[in-house]
Design goal:
Layout (H helix, E strand, L loop, with lengths): L17 H23 L4 E6 L3 H16 L3 E2 L7 E6 L4 H20 L4 E6 L5 H10 L5 E3 L7 H11 L3 E3 L20 E5 L1 E2 L10 H5 L3 E2 L2 H13 L4 E5 L16 H8 L7 E5 L8 H9 L6 E3 L7 H6 L6 H14 L4 E8 L6 H14 L3 E6 L17 H23 L6 E9 L6 E6 L4 E5 L8 E9 L3 E6 L2
Parallel strand pairs: 1-2, 1-3, 3-4, 4-5, 5-6, 7-10, 10-11, 12-13, 13-14, 17-19
Antiparallel strand pairs: 8-9, 15-16, 15-18, 16-17, 18-19
């Protein structure tokens, strides 16, 4: 676990700098946890459940790091003394799921009054959500949003001290607080935030409203973190941001994402570099050149298109046309032969006609994606698209969604099979969920591979002969 060794005493004044302040509250929270643990006669336990994207998954590692630091131990949700949901709000059903889970926790909390329930993440940035929680779920102990996750220990200490629910929602922030505890899910790979927030305001998307404006971490802080990770055994990193291609624009001395990648490449023990998400409008020629020369950047690019209709793309406020997107794909494929391309596509955006949908199918056929995340448009209150006329009827959307899904899957099955019979390097990630005599790993292009092996291989890069493609994954054998 990554932590700093700070000499903090609770008898001293609270440090003025934010990192020191939070380590002060970590010490304070640890005392409260010890007291309750002694009263119960056992260690306290926690469970963090993550909804949503990889940014949320990375945030959850920070939550886990702080909870472990103050004395909690990880446990399944049904037996945890502290349950925290790190929420997503990109689609309506994400909110519904959280309310359902809270309803299930209510009798558990009644049975164990010492139990604490926490809610954080994107959903908490919506004012109507907070009002609903106050009214219908008053048993929730701690509620905070996306901007002040670094205050987690302070909020826990406040909850213990006052015995009352703590709600701390910020509308925005310029702050980036470095060097707080985090507990990685994997010892051999890690996400690394390079920026926070989004300035794009796609008309269907709530993210800029809940994650705030773009702010980039300093290159030095990023490089220092990656060096520490490399020294700790990490061989693969995933650089994270809502739009990594616009990294560095908000810094006092602007730095491009391509320049940052070139510096990361120099860190010896890092063997693989991934990143997401890339907005097509900001993907520069400089970045393509860095990718083409790199021996570490993975041969996989997630490039969300959202629609193949230039008319719909304009309504979505995406700032590119179908033709510009296809030209970009051609440029990338020429510079990085064999690169795997994946995407996001929304079906049923307001005003989408059958002709618009056919444009999307045409683009999918032309690009030949390795895979695509396909979504039915979800109306999010507060976004421009929610107020647009011509909302597409549900039965029409579902029909288009099924047709798109079939097209994507048929193409992906052919595209992914081109590596059959070759030998590729695989980063082994886990034992197979279905067969304990097999291990599961990932190719540079992000495809999964299952092959015979033992747990000692986890975290290692192994040459594997790909014997059979099974659509979206391979079966293989360790190469001699």
């Amino acid at each position: 676990m990554n932590t700093m060794n700070l000499d903090i005493s609770l008898s001293d004044e609270i440090p003025a700098d934010e990192t020191g302040r939070q380590y002060y509250y970590i010490e304070k929270a640890r005392l409260y946890v010890q007291q309750l643990s002694q009263k119960l006669g056992r260690p306290l336990t926690f469970c963090v459940t993550t909804f949503g994207c990889q940014m949320n998954a990375r945030d959850s590692e920070k939550l886990r790091g702080i909870l472990l630091e103050i004395g909690y131990r990880e446990a399944p949700e049904e037996s945890a003394d502290f349950v925290i949901y790190n929420t997503c709000t990109v689609r309506e059903n994400a909110n519904t799921r959280v309310y359902g889970r809270l309803g299930q926790l209510k009798p558990l909390k009644k049975k164990h009054p010492h139990m604490m329930i926490g809610l954080c993440g994107c959903m908490m940035q919506e004012p109507e959500v907070i009002e609903k929680l106050k009214k219908s779920y008053p048993f929730v102990d701690i509620i905070f949003g996306t901007h002040n996750i670094f205050k987690f220990a302070e909020l826990i200490a406040e909850r213990f001290a006052t015995g009352r629910p703590v709600i701390d929602i910020w509308e925005g922030t310029e702050q980036i607080v470095e060097n707080l505890p985090n507990q990685r899910k994997y010892f051999f790979k890690s996400g690394v935030n390079i920026m926070f927030g989004c300035n794009n305001f796609c008309s269907y998307c709530i993210v800029p409203y809940v994650r705030g404006r773009e702010r980039s971490r300093s290159p030095q802080a990023i490089l220092d973190e990656i060096r520490r990770l490399a020294d700790d055994g990490v061989v693969e990193i995933m650089l994270l941001g809502q739009n990594v291609n616009s990294y560095g624009k908000t810094l006092d001395t602007p730095v491009t994402f391509a320049a940052l990648l070139a510096e990361i490449e120099k860190i010896d023990k890092i063997r693989r570099i991934r990143f997401m998400t890339s907005h097509p409008k900001d993907l520069s020629d400089e970045l393509i050149q860095v990718m083409s020369r790199s021996e570490k950047i993975c041969r996989h690019l997630h490039l969300p298109v959202q629609s193949g209709s230039s008319r719909i793309l304009q309504k979505m406020n995406r700032h590119y046309t179908k033709e510009q997107y296809l030209a970009l794909v051609d440029k990338i494929r020429k510079a990085v032969p064999g690169i795997s391309l994946t995407t996001d596509i929304i079906v049923g955006f307001p005003g989408e006609t059958e002709e618009d949908f056919q444009e999307t199918l045409d683009l999918v056929r032309k690009v030949q994606y390795d895979s695509a995340f396909t979504f039915i448009y979800s109306r999010r209150t507060g976004t421009p698209a929610a107020a647009m006329e011509d909302q597409v009827p549900e039965e029409v959307v579902k029909d288009r969604f099924q047709r798109l899904l079939k097209e994507v899957q048929d193409i992906a099955a052919k595209t992914c099979s081109v590596h059959e019979g070759t030998t590729k390097e695989v980063l082994v990630e886990s034992l197979s969920e279905h067969d304990p005599s097999m291990v599961t790993g990932r190719l540079s292009n992000n495809l999964l591979v299952h092959f015979p092996g033992n747990p000692d291989l986890i975290g290692k890069l192994i040459p594997v002969h790909l014997t059979e493609c099974r659509g979206f994954y391979y079966l293989g054998e360790q190469a001699v």
